[in-house]
């Protein structure tokens, strides 16, 4: 047993902690040689206790400690024991753990990257630039943090799933619930679907941004054909019927095959993202017996399937008029609506309309351009505040009541 009692003095604790920190930085559990810098204690008693062990200096200044010389001093009292072992005993710490953990993480990452590279080669899809681009490497880092010890096996599965999707013939789609045999919920959330999406992004199959559901759709994967869809009042597919003022939600499965009756009068259909607008319009239609009130609600971000359904409505002669929130999401919705629905127009989505609303909630995220009114982008960027469609509920209802006869929506994007 080595006599370390003299070094357990409370006034020496700072020195042993400083040496332990240095061992972690260096990844050196022995501290047998070399030189390190430590900051001297500002406490006179603590500096006095360290006299003869380390060089003197001003309080709070850095001094250079020769680990070989300090090891010799320590060896007189504890022969055969390294300075690192003494420091570990006196601090109750395992030294160099940070460096060891860092090395272990690097080794684990290298194995996972090698797994991805090999699996991609075997699947004939290359490494998809996932391991070389900054965005790809960030995606791998997030995957490693989430997957932990399961990363290697999960990476193999991700490559297999991505390869299956990338080999889909043009126009063919696949249900995500059948991509992982025996586990229909494997791609609901977590590191596996996130890595698959990162691979598909690297392959150029999906965009880098946007709702998860929309990105799966871009890849040819049906995320779900039951939940979601469009809610509407006064508008129904051919062959459907509902009481006046009833709200009907049409799920993606039905939207994909819905047919719409044609109109030659360019009758308006108001498109909103907010359920409260739809509910108020349905209540008004029922209370006032207005059979010309037609409102479609995207219930938030419209999917590609939903926009395609709206485009088919427009193709049958209906005049689609859109109104969304003044926030980054609402601007994205407006751009998608105008870009993908032929002849679509906006209503009260200009800078002047924004200026007349109460904008008190700061928005976060990047604001997309507003090509239907570039001044709107300028105004929203300068204020950094969002305004919401609910503030226009009375004007919306009045416009619906008159069939937009007195309204002049902004022109189409193109």
Please explain how this structure is put together.
The protein folds into three domains: 5-95, no CATH class; 99-222, no CATH class; 230-401, 3-Layer(aba) Sandwich (Dna Topoisomerase Vi A Subunit, Chain: A, domain 2), CATH 3.40.1360. The longest helix has 27 residues, at 97-123. The mean pLDDT is 87. Helix content is 44%, strand content 10%. It is of the alpha/beta class. The chain is built from 16 helices and twelve strands. It is elongated. The strands form four sheets. Strands 6-5-8-7-9-10 form a six-stranded mixed sheet, sandwiched between helices.
The unreliable regions are none
How many domains? The number is 3
Q: Which H/E pattern describes the elements?
A: HEHEHHHHHEHHEEEHEHEHEHEHEHEH
Helix content: 40-55%
Cα(first) to Cα(last) distance is 87 Å
Treating each run of at least 4 consecutive H or I residues as one helix, how many helices?
Answer: 16
Overall mean pLDDT score? 87
Structural class: alpha/beta
The CATH topology of the largest domain: Dna Topoisomerase Vi A Subunit, Chain: A, domain 2
